[in-house]
Specification:
- It is a single chain.
- The protein has 91 residues and is an all-beta fold.
- It has one domain: Single Sheet (N-terminal domain of TfIIb).
- Helix content is 0%, strand content 35%.
- The chain contains no helices and five strands.
- It has strands at 12-13, 25-36, 50-63, 69-70, 82-83.
- It has a three-stranded antiparallel sheet with strand order 2-3-4, with no helix packed on it.
- The model has no long low-confidence stretch (mean pLDDT 88).
- The structure holds zinc ion (ZN).
- Zinc ion (ZN) binds next to loops.
- Zinc ion (ZN) is lined by residues 17, 19-20, 22, 63, 65-66, 68.
Length: 91
């Protein structure tokens, strides 16, 4: 699903602050990760652990204007609030 996204284009969301209607937000996607270390003959480098996201669990929003915090309804990851972008439509 993520592979099909065009990351060269700006993403667009219709999400607005429910308190002041501002479109200037911070969005935080929270995920569960695991980290894998390769152990060779009982030795491994702690700094070389490879982290992989296992599941995206939650999306939270904060308004840059009024500092309102909320959990967007029905949105669990950033893709849930991104709109499809028509050709030639940029801000
Ligand atoms: Zn606000």
């Amino acid at each position: 699903m993520i592979e099909t996204k065009d990351f060269e284009r700006p993403a667009v969301t219709r999400l607005r602050c429910p308190s002041c209607r501002s479109g200037n937000l911070f969005l935080v996607e929270s995920a569960t990760w695991n980290t894998e270390w390769k152990v060779v003959d009982g030795k491994f480098d702690r700094a070389e652990g490879i982290s992989n996201p296992q599941s995206v669990d939650r999306l939270d929003a904060t308004c840059q204007h009024c500092d309102h915090h909320w959990k967007p309804r029905g949105a669990w990851q950033i893709d849930d609030v991104c709109e499809e972008i028509e050709d030639g439509v940029k801000d």
